[in-house]
Inverse folding.
């Protein structure tokens, strides 16, 4: 079971309690990166092309700063996936950007 | 300084005092952020407890309520026992004081001289002798008028009451005449018990504090939809609504709007309450919308031709009703775009419960 599957019941539970739930919450991803920092394998599947790359640095003035390096990649199976490396937590996530 | 507790007042702190002065006077003083929504909720609790004890209450302002004891005197065994019951209902934490008299002002004056937890009863024939030595500060007059009366040597209710009414009216105008009339006990007016308050509240907690007005507007829209769909409303239009927010620092904010004409039209309600969101002073962690008063059901003129899209809307509602019936309450949510411009994808939209 992935973290995304966990997020859905949690969101439904939040809605039941009258609390707004988040949409498009990032899910942990298994990524192997190249020396350049670009993803080479995403969820054990080879990355054939990196279509786009961008950075999001925000909320640096708060207790929860955001430092993400996003990659939109095409996998060997032809699937389009968006992953990012969280600079604060030093781990990878997948998210629809 | 804003309002102060009885304990702080005992230590010499009074409302309006400078902060430094108050802290010098009472170093153990605890400062609390203003929480009008919390105060209103607590006050509503007090009123409900009094109503549960059988009193028909007419709230004057937060902290002051008028009620009739005639109906419950036989139940509790006299005026004094009824007032004791009222004090117990309010609870000792509030330092409640009660006063009874044949007229409102006399009862108010009696309550103002009572100690916390005590009830003072003024019999009809003792009214004037009770009022005579009391200070003028009980009267609803502005500072200048007090100063003027003091300058004239009038310091007690008795000395004001003994003046000829015409002369007081000539010197102090309408306000002075009213004060003179109160100093003589005021008029007799029936207590009009309030109608039971509606318990229609919708609230939305945010995963993190929200300061953006657009986000708040969207959340307010979702709350309005939910309140509108509550079955307890039974089609009745809204007369009075309250919008309140729990603020990030622990304080709160609250605004009440009375509709000139009771309505259930979302567009009109949105335009009446929406602009108030701009007045919220700090980021919000919870937004609440409360139907304070509903109007009685009024007939509505139906349209001759159903508006476009009504059939599709009806089918959608029926579909959602079935989903809710099979999957339980909270199974249906609506996606509300709150910050579509955000660079952080998960903050762009929220899923809010939808009970319609």
């Amino acid at each position: 079971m992935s973290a995304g599957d966990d997020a859905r019941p949690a969101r439904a539970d939040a809605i039941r309690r009258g609390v707004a739930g988040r949409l498009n919450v990032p899910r942990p991803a298994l990524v192997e990166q190249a020396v350049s920092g670009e993803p080479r394998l995403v969820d054990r599947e080879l990355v054939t092309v990196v279509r786009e790359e961008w950075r999001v640095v925000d909320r640096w003035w708060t207790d929860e700063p955001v430092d993400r390096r996003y990659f939109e990649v095409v996998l060997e199976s032809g699937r389009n996936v968006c992953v990012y490396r969280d600079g604060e937590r030093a781990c990878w996530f997948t998210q629809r950007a | 300084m804003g309002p102060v507790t009885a304990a702080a007042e005992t230590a010499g702190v009074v409302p309006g005092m400078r902060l430094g002065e108050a802290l010098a006077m009472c170093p153990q003083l605890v400062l609390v952020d203003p929480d009008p929504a919390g105060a209103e909720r607590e006050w509503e609790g007090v009123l409900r407890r009094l109503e549960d004890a059988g009193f028909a209450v007419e709230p004057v302002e937060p902290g002051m309520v008028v009620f009739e004891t005639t109906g419950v005197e036989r139940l509790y065994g006299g005026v004094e026992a009824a007032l004791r019951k009222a004090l117990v209902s309010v609870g000792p934490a509030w330092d409640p004081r009660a006063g009874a008299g044949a007229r409102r002002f006399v009862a108010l004056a009696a309550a103002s001289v009572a100690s916390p937890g005590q009830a003072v009863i003024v019999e009809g024939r003792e009214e004037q002798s009770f009022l005579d030595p009391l200070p003028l500060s009980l009267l609803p007059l502005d500072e200048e008028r007090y100063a003027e009366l003091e300058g004239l040597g009038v310091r007690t209710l008795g000395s004001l009451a003994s003046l000829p009414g015409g002369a007081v009216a000539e010197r102090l105008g309408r306000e002075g005449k009213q004060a003179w009339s109160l100093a003589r006990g005021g008029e007799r007016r029936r207590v009009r018990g309030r109608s039971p308050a509606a318990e229609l509240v919708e609230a939305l907690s945010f995963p993190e504090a929200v300061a953006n007005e657009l986000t708040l507007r969207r959340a307010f829209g979702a709350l309005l939809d939910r309140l509108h769909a509550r079955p307890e409303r039974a089609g009745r239009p809204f007369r009075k609504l309250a919008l309140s927010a729990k603020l990030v620092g622990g304080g709160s904010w609250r605004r009440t709007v009375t509709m000139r004409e009771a309505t259930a039209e979302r567009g009109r309600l949105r335009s009446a309450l929406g602009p108030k969101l701009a007045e919220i002073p700090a980021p919000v962690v919870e937004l609440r919308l409360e139907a304070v008063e509903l109007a009685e059901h009024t007939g509505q003129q139906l349209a001759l031709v159903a508006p476009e899209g009504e059939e599709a809307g009806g089918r959608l509602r029926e579909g959602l009703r079935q989903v809710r019936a099979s999957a339980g309450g909270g199974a249906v949510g609506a996606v509300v775009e709150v910050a579509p411009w955000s660079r952080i994808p998960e903050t762009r939209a929220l899923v809010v419960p939808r009970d319609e």
In short: DSSP finds 13 helices and ten strands in chain B.
